[in-house]
Each structure stands twice: as structure tokens, then as C-alpha cells.
Write a structure and sequence with these properties.
The complex is a heterodimer of chains A (about 425) and B (about 525).
Chain A lengths: L17 E5 L11 H7 L3 E7 L1 H11 L9 E5 L2 H5 L1 H18 L5 E6 L1 H5 L4 H12 L4 E6 L9 H10 L11 E4 L4 H13 L5 E4 L15 E4 L5 H9 L3 E2 L7 H15 L4 H22 L7 E4 L6 H10 L4 E7 L4 H10 L5 E6 L1 H11 L3 E4 L1 H9 L4 E3 L2 H4 L8 H17 L7
Chain B lengths: L1 E3 L7 H11 L3 E6 L8 H7 L8 E3 L10 H17 L3 E6 L1 H6 L3 H6 L7 E3 L9 H16 L10 E5 L8 H14 L3 E6 L5 H4 L7 E4 L2 H14 L12 H15 L12 H6 L10 E6 L1 H14 L3 E7 L5 H11 L3 E3 L3 H11 L3 E4 L1 H10 L3 E3 L18 H28 L38 H10 L5 E2 L1 H9 L2 H17 L4 E2 L1 H11 L2
Parallel strand pairs in B: 2-3, 2-4, 4-5, 6-7, 6-8, 9-10, 9-12, 10-11, 12-13, 14-15
Classes of the chains: A alpha/beta (about 425), B alpha/beta (about 525).
Organism (chain A): Thalassococcus profundi
InterPro entries (chain A): LIPOR_BchN/ChlN, Nase/OxRdtase_comp1, Protochl_reductN
GO molecular function (chain A): 4 iron, 4 sulfur cluster binding; ATP binding; metal ion binding; oxidoreductase activity, acting on iron-sulfur proteins as donors; oxidoreductase activity, acting on the CH-CH group of donors, iron-sulfur protein as acceptor
């Protein structure tokens, strides 16, 4: 299975001590997750209860999407809301009623907590329960926190999915659950591959619509397609479901290993597995080798952002021949990440959390060939002569599974190719 | 609580960041939760700055809440001083930190830093970005500016430009040149480009040019009172305003009102016959008060448009816009709710919108041409090329910017009309490639009416429904129709049919044709 890749390293990064830092974090808060989640859940509306800052963040992160009648908004707290608590619940009722009247197509409403709403201890859980009763059966109202004080970037998706798990019905049937919001095209590819191996029925969390609800129970097994889902992992485990541990499906190796773990769980014969995966594996291999030209023997440095950093470092080092200098993650969940840590050869510094100025100093000292970082750091580092790849694109762009493996490598090789192409200095 | 999707302005601490990022040698320590660093990318991406904004965030998390956050703030302050060695520090709280009441001002005082530490009180739940910028700059001046000896020559300060300001970079250049031609040198430009040490010598100037009241008025009023610096009231955007500005400066200083307008092209471009079609174009204006007020004058007096509505999102300028709207005989719209703006635009059905990024999208939705005149703006409105709004070149830039979408509107309109023409329809092929024009099968047999100007789109469906009555062209009318130039024939045909259908007329005669023409004439 690993014939095309270096053998698994004798010593992976599982035992590597992790540099834990706290200080200024240059990261998004969990509210940002709304921007891709609302595209995925087509009958859901996300109502942030927060400040003007929250609305401004969503607007800045959503870019031009804000104009396409998005299914998210902010209930901005005003002075009067801060004065007395009873008032705030009434105000929230008023805003939600107004919203649901305007958008009768909405079937699920998420009340999303923010830093201000958490700090004033506005009880959104109770509000969600009350409203669920009030608007049942047409609308289901749930609550989770996307606040910066509790969640970092993609952890917002985790908090959202974890909030959905308890309300799913019970079942005893043996079903596979894929957990994590994927672009539609990628999700379909995954479902097709699993179907070709005779694995089913397969459910997806989050489902497109509240109508697609399914049950969870002791015979449910689930596979994570995204690494940032630790709370969802815990919530599913509490319902009796069992996790299929696997590396994350990035690149040919990651996808094959991920599929292989699922196939083993469902006793798929080896020859069937080979016949289903052979052609897409060959395509992925070819695409990666083309797109990763220019990445070989180059060094890469990851600033923390999405928790995708470890599996991506594994893909870049093993399939594209890069060397990792430092892999920063906002949060490291050992149990979920260990298959990827085992495959990532010892060497890079693993850092959890951040003190951005210290990390910048390390990055400057290392002079990596490519730095993966957020948009607040990218242009300043480019101006210092360092090539960067802005990380947020890795969350929005289809990058999982076989057909996207070449695109994934391309995202990292493009900035380096561009630096080679631009001749902006005077000829000597 | 207020239900909001789009906000014209960010929270007030973003205004403070705009001041800090515009300046040099100043550092902002912001007590804020993890995540508030999102604002950095406004500067690094939209404005394409090549360095990080000089802001240190405490980024407290849930586990820090309690006594810990105060320590976090002090540590962040000390670290920031050690690392960046600024000449002065401003400290403040973002909306969440405001709720936990750590008092950054008081805490920073106890640290005994060897540079001025300026505390900011920015009420996040009442005020917004522009207030934040204005207040921050005012506090900086109040703490750092001192009476100093005036310069021997006549000099002035340019007050108000900040980071993330709409065309602030080039407005500074344009005004500096314009003043230099009058023999007036610029003492300090602030906040943009200034250091804290420059703020200390603001008083050496003879007067202040208040470029942007939104971000500089409080400071100018304070300097007028405390440093004896008068400030200009005219914002030199547009030809008339620029001339008035020069006159105002001349009156303030006693120098001659010199204005080199050899490069000024707006007046002639606007007077040339090609611009005749601009006459009476119905425009709607929205944005910040300053740019809207300036645009209204240009629109009416320099472009010959008809201003059918105006408004602003910053309530600090509400009085200005209300009184101006009265002069123009229109109703002022003071709101920060884009849905209200959209409703007003729909009601007024203008032929052009001059607004912000948001109005650009409203215009796109409604099929109305739009040009951007004010923040908030997106990355394309921080252009690489020189494009001021103020002064001589600013007027040239404004003429091009405003006319562009209209010319394109006209082009699109013509293309739509030509679409049904025998030479231009989709299947005809390009004549210079030897393609032969083929007859469009249903041109003459009452097929789909050619597309008409986009502003009719909204009504199109009703019109179609109304014309479900079978309308027949009498031979004489048909013949008359063919005398109409081909590029307006489609429009004439449709207008006539709609006109007839609405009145229950089933046969179109030559008279019907001309009655319809008279009806639609303007």
C-alpha cells in the first residue's frame, strides 16, 4: 500500500515533545466556521449574538459572499442589552421572530455564542430550548459557542457539529458516518468510492438538510474527514458510536490509508479495494508528481491556523519531498492525530498555541522556503523576502481525496513558481 | 439588539487601529480576546501593507478570565515596549474587554514606562469606527501636542488621513502640491505618516487643513482652541470646492489665491458635446458625509446630473447631510442599515448610484450603474495608480470614474438593442471574417422583443403579462416602424406594444406608434 512512498518512519512525531506557547495568537475565532458551514447546511441559519466586532469579522472573512443573501447574521448587542439580563432574552426572542418571519425557508437556527455574549453570561442554551419549543416542529433551534475565548477558527465547526449530535435520534443499525463539512464535489467522490466497495449505508455530518436526519447508536462507526473535530468525536463516542482511526485523506497516501481503515472495518476484500482504488491512485500520483515539481527538498514552516497543519505537513514531506521545519497547530488532539503523527518523520518542531512574535523570530531565523500562515502575516513576510502560502485557502478549496491531490500540491508550489517567474529587478 | 448582516463601519477600536497603523513609531496595545486579530488583514490585504499593523493584542482566552487578564495586559504592554521601542503607546479595550472592566489606562499607568502612554475610552456598544479614529487622534494630540514657536514661513498641517482611508494616500500628495503652488509648505501630515514626535510640533504650523472631518475634526477643534490654529472648512473635492478651498486658504493666510489649473480637464470634458447625454441623469448618493456632500455638488454643478436622493451612514455627519438635502430638495437618508438604502434606491429608481462597496452590489442587483465615492471599499479601491479625489487631478479622476459605468451602461444598452438586428444577432457571424449575415427568423414576425435598457428589467414581467392581449401591427404602422433607425427600432416596437396593450388597443396604427413615442419621450 505504501509502495510509492518512503516507508513509515522508524520514529514518527508521536513522542516528540510539543512546544506549548501562550501569548498573542494571530488566529481567527470560531465564528469564521459559519462562512463555510452555512453553504453546506442549506436550510440552516446562523445567528451570532455578539458585538459589531463579530459582524465586522464575518463581513471581512466572507468577502464578497456577504451580498448573496447569506444565511447568517449578527444580533448586535447594544447598551441597553448590557444593562439588564431579562431584557436580553426578550430582545433575542424579538430578533429571532423577526428573522424567521423574513426567512420562512429556515429549518435549523443556530444561536452562536461570541466573546461578548459569553462574558455577560447570556444563556443561549436556555434560549435555544425555549425557542425550539416555540417554533417546533418547523424550526429546530440549537446553540454553540464560536467565541474567540473558547474556539480557534475551525473549532467553530467542531462546536457546531457537536451541538447537533445530541439531538439526532437513536438507532441500532450499523451505519458509517462521515464527519466533517466537505465541498460537495469531494463529498460525492468519497461516497462513490465507498459505494464501489460495497460500504453502506453512509451518512454525512453535517447533512445538507434537517430532512436528511439519521440515527446514532452503538452500531454506528464514524470516520473523521477533518482533524479539528475533537468535541464532535467525544459527543459521538458518548452516544455509543465508535471512531475509525485513520490518517486524514490528503494526497494519495492519506486517502488510501483513510479508505483502507474504513474498508478494514467493513471487511472489504483486498482485491476489491485494489480494483476500486487503483485507477484514482494512479491519477493522484501523476497529478501530485507534476504539481509538486519545485517543492522537492524545499523547507516549509507552518504557523498555527486550522489544525490541518500536521496532516498537510505529512503530505508535503512524504508525497512532495519537502522538509518541515516547524509545524504549529492551535490545538493538538493526540488520539485523533496519532496516525498522522506516526507517519510524520521526526525532525520538525511541533508547536501548540502561539506567541506570534516569538514564532516569527523562529521563522525568520529558519528562513524556510515556504511559510504557511494567515493573511495578517502573509504580505508582511513576503515583503521580508519570504515566500508564503496563505492558510485559509486550504479550508475553502477542495483539497481532500484522490482527485484533489494534485490541486493540493499545486496550492503550495504556485507561490514558489511565481517567485521564480517574476523578474521585477532591473537587468544587470 | 439589532439584526445586522452588513456593517458600514467596524467597531471603534478598528478606528484606533487605523490611526496607529497610519502613524509610525506609535504602538497600540489592545486588550482583546483571541480572534480580534482578524482586523490585521484589513490592512495587510485590502490596503496591501507590507508590515504588520503596530498592534499587540492580549488575546485572552476563556481560561484567563478572572484576575489573570489584568496580568496578561501588563505583560503584553511591557513586551510590546521592549520589542518595538515606540515613542508612545496607546492602550485600550475591544468590545469584550470593555465588559470585563480591566481598565487598561489605569493598569498601564502603574507600569512606569518611559514613554507617554495614552489611554483610550472607546465605547464599543455605542460608537463606531470613525468615532474611534477621531477620538484616538484627538487623544494623541491632547497628550502630545504642545504650543511651540510658529515656523517663519507659512506652513500648515494636513489633518485626518489614516490607514484604510479611501484615497487618503493620493489626496495627501495632491494637496501638498496644490498648497506648494500657493507657497505654503506642509508642516506635518497626521495621523498618516506622522510620528509621535511630529505630533509634538503640530503647533508650529499657521493653520490646519482638515482633510476628512470624520477622522480629524475633534483634533482640529482642540488645536484651534489650545494652539490657536484655525482650520479649513472646505473639503477640496471637485472643481468648485477646490477653488473655494484655495480662496479660503488665501483668506486665512493672506497669500494670493493661486491655482494652476492647466492640468484640469473636468470642466472641458463635461462641457464637450459628448457629455450632453449626462444631462439630468438621476443619481443617488450614499457614503460618508464628507464624500457625499462633495459628490452632490460635483454631480449637480459640474456634471449636470439631477441628485434624486442622498444619505450617509455616519450619524456624526447627519446634520450636514440633512441641511444639504434640503438645499437639493430631496429627503436625507441617515442610516447604517443597507436594507434601508436598498429600499430607497428601489423607490427612487435612479439611473446611477454613487456610493460605497455596498451600493455597488445593490446596483449590480438592481442593474443600475454605480461608481464608488466613499469607504467602506474593497481591495480594488486601493489602486496602484495615482488616483486622488481631491484637487485638480482628483476632479479628473472623478470625471472618468463616474462616467465610466455610464458609458459602459450605454454600450451594453446598444449591444442589447443590436442583438435583434439582421447584422448583429447571435448567429450572424463576424462580417470581417467573411461570415454572411443571415436573416433572424422571427425578427419581423413578432418574436421576442429585443432587450431594452436594464432599468426596465424589474417591470418586464408585468409588461409581458399585460401584453398577453394579441396586438396587431397595421401595415402602415409596420412600414412606418421600418423608417426608424434600426438601433432604436426594437425599443420602439416594444414600447409601442406595451403602450397599446396597457390601453387595450389591439391594432397599432401610425397614430398609436407616435402616441407611444410621445408617451415615452423625456
Amino acid at each position: 500500500m505504501t509502495g510509492h512512498f518512503p516507508p513509515p518512519p522508524a520514529r514518527g512525531c508521536s513522542d516528540t515533545p510539543v512546544l506549548k506557547e501562550r501569548g498573542q495568537h494571530e488566529v481567527f475565532c470560531g465564528l469564521t466556521g459559519i462562512i463555510w458551514l452555512h453553504r453546506k447546511m442549506q436550510d440552516a441559519f446562523f445567528l451570532v449574538v455578539g458585538s459589531r466586532t463579530c459582524a465586522h469579522l464575518l463581513q471581512s472573512a466572507a468577502g464578497v459572499m456577504i451580498f448573496a443573501e447569506p444565511r447568517f447574521a449578527t444580533a448586535i448587542l447594544e447598551e441597553t442589552d448590557l444593562a439588564g439580563m431579562a431584557d436580553a432574552q426578550e430582545e433575542l426572542d424579538r430578533v429571532v421572530t423577526q428573522l424567521l418571519e423574513r426567512r420562512p425557508d429556515i429549518r435549523q437556527l443556530f444561536l452562536v455564542g461570541s466573546c461578548p455574549s459569553e462574558v455577560i453570561k447570556l444563556d443561549l442554551g436556555r434560549a435555544a430550548e425555549r425557542m425550539s419549543a416555540q417554533f417546533a416542529p418547523r424550526v429546530r433551534v440549537l446553540n454553540y459557542s464560536g467565541s474567540g475565548i473558547e474556539t480557534t477558527f475551525t473549532q467553530g465547526e467542531d462546536a457546531c457539529l457537536a451541538a447537533m449530535v445530541p439531538v439526532l435520534p437513536d438507532t441500532d443499525s450499523r451505519e458509517l458516518l462521515l464527519v466533517g463539512a466537505l465541498p460537495d464535489v469531494v463529498e460525492q467522490q468519497a461516497l462513490d468510492l465507498l459505494e464501489a466497495m460495497g460500504i453502506g449505508p453512509v451518512r454525512v455530518l453535517p447533512a445538507q438538510s434537517v430532512e436528511d436526519d439519521y440515527g446514532i447508536g452503538p452500531n454506528t462507526v464514524f470516520a473523521l474527514t477533518q482533524p479539528f473535530l475533537s468535541d464532535t468525536h467525544a459527543a459521538l463516542t458518548r452516544r455509543g458510536a465508535r471512531h475509525i482511526a485513520a490518517p486524514f485523506p490528503f494526497g494519495e497516501e492519506g486517502t488510501t490509508a483513510w479508505l483502507s481503515a474504513v474498508a478494514a472495518e467493513f471487511d472489504v476484500p483486498q482485491d476489491l479495494f485494489e480494483s476500486v482504488t487503483a485507477a484514482p491512485r494512479a491519477r493522484a500520483r501523476k497529478a501530485v508528481s507534476q504539481a509538486s515539481e519545485g517543492l522537492r527538498d524545499r523547507s516549509v514552516f507552518f504557523f498555527p491556523d486550522s489544525q490541518l497543519e500536521i496532516p498537510l505537513a505529512r503530505f508535503l514531506t512524504r508525497e512532495c519531498g519537502m522538509a518541515a521545519v516547524e509545524v504549529g497547530v492551535p490545538f493538538l488532539h493526540r488520539a485523533i492525530m496519532s496516525p498522522d503523527l506516526d507517519l510524520l518523520a521526526e525532525g520538525p518542531t511541533l508547536a501548540e498555541g502561539q506567541d506570534v512574535d516569538k514564532q516569527l523570530a523562529r521563522c525568520r531565523a529558519a528562513r524556510p522556503d515556504l511559510t504557511v500562515c494567515g493573511l495578517g502575516l502573509a504580505n508582511p513576510l513576503e515583503a521580508e523576502g519570504m515566500a508564503t502560502k496563505w492558510a485559509i485557502e486550504l479550508v475553502f478549496t477542495p483539497v481532500h481525496f484522490y482527485e484533489q491531490a494534485g490541486d493540493l500540491a499545486g496550492l503550495f508550489s504556485r507561490p514558489l513558481r511565481r517567485r521564480g517567474l517574476l523578474k521585477l529587478e532591473a537587468a544587470e | 439588539m439589532k439584526l445586522t448582516v452588513w456593517t458600514y463601519e467596524g467597531p471603534p477600536h478598528v478606528g484606533a487601529m487605523r490611526v496607529a497603523t497610519g502613524m509610525k513609531g506609535l504602538h497600540y496595545v489592545l486588550h482583546a480576546p483571541q480572534g480580534d486579530t482578524y482586523a490585521d488583514l484589513l490592512f495587510t490585504m485590502i490596503e496591501r501593507r507590507d508590515h504588520r499593523p503596530p498592534v499587540t493584542y492580549t488575546t485572552f482566552q476563556a481560561r484567563d478570565l478572572g484576575a489573570d487578564t489584568a496580568d496578561l495586559f501588563k505583560t503584553a504592554c511591557l513586551d510590546a515596549y521592549d520589542r518595538f521601542q515606540p515613542e508612545a503607546i496607546i492602550v485600550g479595550a475591544s468590545c469584550t474587554a470593555e465588559l470585563i472592566q480591566d481598565d487598561p489606562g489605569g493598569m498601564s499607568e502603574t507600569l512606569g514606562l518611559p514613554v507617554p502612554v495614552i489611554p483610550l475610552e472607546l465605547p464599543s456598544y455605542q460608537r463606531k469606527e470613525n468615532f474611534g479614529a477621531d477620538e484616538t487622534f484627538f487623544q494623541i494630540c491632547r497628550h502630545l501636542a504642545r504650543p511651540v514657536e510658529k515656523t517663519a514661513r507659512i506652513t500648515c498641517n494636513l489633518i485626518g488621513p489614516t490607514a484604510l482611508g479611501f484615497r487618503h494616500r493620493d489626496d495627501i500628495t495632491e494637496l501638498t502640491g496644490l498648497l506648494l503652488e500657493m507657497g505654503i509648505e506642509v508642516n506635518v501630515v497626521a495621523p498618516m505618516t506622522a510620528r509621535p514626535s511630529d505630533i509634538a510640533r503640530l503647533g508650529a504650523a499657521h493653520f490646519n487643513v482638515l482633510m476628512y472631518p470624520e477622522t480629524g475634526e475633534s483634533a482640529c477643534r482642540w488645536m484651534e482652541r489650545e494652539l490657536g490654529l484655525p482650520f479649513t472648512k472646505t473639503v477640496p473635492i471637485g472643481v468648485g470646492a477646490t477653488r473655494d478651498f484655495v480662496a479660503e486658504v488665501a483668506a486665512l493666510t493672506g497669500v494670493a489665491a493661486t491655482l494652476d489649473d492647466t492640468r484640469l480637464r473636468l470642466p472641458w470634458y463635461s462641457a464637450s458635446v459628448d457629455s450632453t447625454y449626462l444631462t439630468g441623469k438621476r443619481v443617488f448618493l450614499f457614503g460618508d458625509g464628507t464624500h457625499v456632500a462633495a459628490a452632490a455638488r460635483i454631480a449637480r454643478d459640474e456634471m449636470g446630473f439631477e441628485v434624486v436622493g442622498m444619505g450617509c451612514y455616519n450619524r456624526e455627519q447627519a446634520r450636514l447631510i440633512r441641511s444639504l438635502a434640503k438645499d437639493y430638495g430631496v429627503e436625507a437618508l441617515i442610516t447604517d442599515d443597507y436594507l434601508e438604502v436598498e429600499r430607497r434606491i428601489e423607490d427612487l429608481a435612479p439611473e446611477m448610484i454613487l456610493g460605497t462597496q455596498m451600493e455597488r452590489h445593490i446596483g449590480k442587483r438592481l442593474g443600475i450603474p454605480c461608481a464608488v465615492i466613499s469607504a467602506p471599499v474593497h481591495v480594488q479601491d486601493f489602486p496602484a495608480r495615482y488616483s486622488p479625489q481631491m484637487g485638480i487631478e482628483g476632479a479628473n479622476v472623478i470625471f472618468d470614474t463616474w462616467v465610466h459605468p455610464l458609458v459602459m451602461g450605454l454600450e451594453e444598452h446598444l449591444l442589447h438593442m443590436f442583438r435583434a438586428d439582421f447584422e448583429f444577432h447571435d448567429d450572424a457571424g463576424a462580417s470581417h471574417h467573411g461570415g454572411k449575415a443571415t436573416e433572424l427568423a422571427d425578427t419581423e414576425t413578432g418574436g421576442p422583443a429585443p432587450q431594452t435598457p436594464r432599468r426596465f428589467n424589474g417591470k418586464m414581467k408585468e409588461d409581458r403579462a399585460a401584453s398577453s392581449v394579441e396586438v396587431v401591427w397595421l401595415p402602415a404602422a409596420e412600414k412606418e416602424l421600418k423608417k426608424i433607425p434600426f438601433f432604436v427600432r426594437g425599443k420602439a416596437r416594444r414600447n409601442t406594444e406595451v403602450f397599446a396593450a396597457e390601453r387595450g388597443v389591439e391594432e397599432i396604427s401610425v397614430d398609436t406608434l407616435y402616441e407611444a413615442k410621445a408617451h415615452y419621450a423625456r
